[in-house]
C-alpha cells in the first residue's frame, strides 16, 4: 500500500513545515549576526577544532541520534560521519521510500548556503554575546529547512507511484531535464510563494491589545525575503532532491 502517503498528504506536510521554517527565521532574527559563533578562532572549545556552531551542531546531533531522531526517514543529519547509533527501540516508521533514498543527503550544500548566503539577508548586524543561543537557533532552523528540502523524496515517490509509466523511461535515460519538467507544478509553486509571504506577515506582526498595528508595519522577518527564500532556494532544492531520488528509483 501507500502507507497513507498521497500527493495531498505530502503537500500538507510541506505546508505545515512552512510554519516551522518561518518561526525558525523569526527566532534566529531575534539575535544579531553574532559572527563569533561562526569563527573558528573565537569561542575555542578545548579538544574541538571548528567553530562554536559546529561544536553545538555535532554534539546536538549526537545526542539526538542516540535518542532516535534519525530512525525517521524524514530526518537527515548534517554531520553523518561518526554519528552514534540510536540507543532506543525504534518506532516502526513505514518504509515508504526506495532504499536509494538513504544516499540522498544535500545537507553539506544547505549548510554552506545558509551561512554564506541566507543568514546575512535576514539578521541585523551586531553582537550581543548570545553565541550558544544563536548556534542552537541556527541548528533548529537548518533542521527545518533540511526536512523541507529532503521531503522531496516523499513527494517524488508519490509522483512515481502515480504514473510509473511516465517516469520510468526518463529515469532509464537519466534525463534530468525531462524529470524536472514532469515533476514541476508551476501553479502549486506560485501558491507556496504567496502563502509563505502572507504567513510571514501574520506570524511576524507585532500583536497589539487594543488596536491593529498598521501604522508602522515592521515585521520580524521581511515577508518578501521569505517568499524569495522559497523561490530562489527552497523550492529549487526540493526539486533537485526529487530528481536525485528518482534517478536512483529503479536501482
Ligand atoms: C513539492 C512538489 O514538487 C514541486 C516543488 C514544489 C515545492 O517545492 O513547493 C511545488 C510544486 C512542484 O513544482 C509538489 O508538487 O508539491
UniProtKB/TrEMBL annotation:
GO biological process: amino acid biosynthetic process; aromatic amino acid family biosynthetic process; chorismate metabolic process; prephenate(2-) biosynthetic process
Pfam families: CM_2
Protein's recorded name: Chorismate mutase
Top EC category: isomerase
Pathway field: Metabolic intermediate biosynthesis; prephenate biosynthesis; prephenate from chorismate: step 1/1
Protein's organism: Crotalaria pallida
Keyword RNA-binding: no
One Gene Ontology CC term in the entry: cytoplasm
Any one GO molecular-function label of the UniProt entry: protein homodimerization activity
Amino acid at each position: 500500500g501507500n502507507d497513507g502517503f498521497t500527493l495531498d498528504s505530502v503537500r500538507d506536510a510541506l505546508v505545515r513545515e512552512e510554519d516551522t521554517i518561518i518561526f525558525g527565521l523569526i527566532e534566529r532574527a531575534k539575535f544579531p549576526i553574532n559572527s563569533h559563533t561562526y569563527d573558528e578562532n573565537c569561542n575555542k572549545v578545548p579538544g574541538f577544532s571548528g567553530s562554536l556552531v559546529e561544536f553545538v551542531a555535532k554534539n546536538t546531533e549526537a545526542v539526538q541520534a542516540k535518542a532516535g531522531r534519525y530512525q525517521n526517514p524524514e530526518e537527515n543529519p548534517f554531520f553523518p560521519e561518526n554519528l552514534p547509533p540510536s540507543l532506543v527501540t525504534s518506532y516502526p516508521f513505514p518504509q515508504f521510500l526506495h532504499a536509494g533514498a538513504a544516499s540522498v543527503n544535500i545537507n553539506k550544500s544547505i549548510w554552506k548556503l545558509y551561512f554564506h548566503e541566507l543568514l546575512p539577508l535576514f539578521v541585523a548586524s551586531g553582537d550581543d554575546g548570545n553565541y550558544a543561543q544563536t548556534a542552537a537557533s541556527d541548528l533548529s532552523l537548518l533542521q527545518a529547512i533540511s526536512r523541507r528540502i529532503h521531503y522531496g523524496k516523499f513527494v517524488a515517490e508519490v509522483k512515481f507511484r502515480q504514473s510509473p509509466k511516465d517516469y520510468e523511461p526518463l529515469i532509464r535515460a537519466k534525463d534530468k531535464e525531462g524529470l524536472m519538467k514532469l515533476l514541476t507544478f508551476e501553479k502549486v509553486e506560485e501558491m507556496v510563494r504567496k502563502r509563505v509571504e502572507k504567513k510571514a506577515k501574520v506570524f511576524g506582526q507585532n500583536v497589539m491589545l487594543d488596536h491593529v498595528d498598521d501604522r508602522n508595519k515592521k515585521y520580524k522577518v521581511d515577508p518578501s525575503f521569505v517568499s524569495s527564500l522559497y523561490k530562489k532556494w527552497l523550492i529549487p532544492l526540493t526539486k533537485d532532491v526529487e530528481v536525485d531520488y528518482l534517478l536512483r528509483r529503479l536501482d
